[in-house]
From TrEMBL:
The chain crosses the membrane at residues 26-47, 59-78, 98-119. GO terms for cellular component: membrane. It is found in: Membrane. It is a multi-pass membrane protein. Belongs to the UPF0220 family. Its main location: membrane. This is Transmembrane protein 50A isoform 3. Keywords: Membrane, Transmembrane, Transmembrane helix. Pfam families: UPF0220. It comes from Scophthalmus maximus. The keyword NAD does not apply. It comes from the Eukaryota.
Length: 129
């Protein structure tokens, strides 16, 4: 997904834009604007509706968890994700990791998520009556 800006088309012509050295800057600014906008909207809603009955403050939990996830994702370099680890250092080279537990956790959560979607949107409204 790191190259999603590589083949931008401008109308009928294929404009292969060479982002070059500005790619990191553009991506960082865009991510910052999106992150800021998300928090700005939720803070605006909290200020506009300070009463717990209209806007329960526990709803901030989703944004806090997403922010922690955002920081955790960016704490790992792309080289480590691809397996391009350092050959030297205080820890040394990493061994070949066991992959299946991570895949199992991903599929567990994916199936629970899609099961919830099917249960919510795939049934009729009179199921519990």
């Amino acid at each position: 997904m790191s190259g999603f800006l590589d083949g931008i088309r401008c109308g009928d012509c294929e404009c292969n834009v060479d982002w070059g050295e500005r790619r990191n800057t553009i991506a960082s600014v865009a991510a910052g604007v999106l992150f800021f906008t998300g928090w700005w909207i939720i803070i605006d809603a909290a200020v506009k509706y300070p009463d717990q009955g209209q806007f329960h403050h526990a709803y901030h939990t989703c944004g806090v968890i997403a922010t922690v996830a955002f920081l955790m994702i960016n704490a790992v370099s792309n080289g480590q994700v691809r397996g391009d680890s350092y050959s030297e250092g205080c820890i040394g080279q990493t061994e070949k990791p066991v992959v299946y537990p991570g895949i199992a956790i991903f599929f567990q959560n994916a199936f629970i998520f899609f099961g919830g979607l099917v249960f919510k949107f795939g049934r009729t409204e009179d199921l519990w009556q």
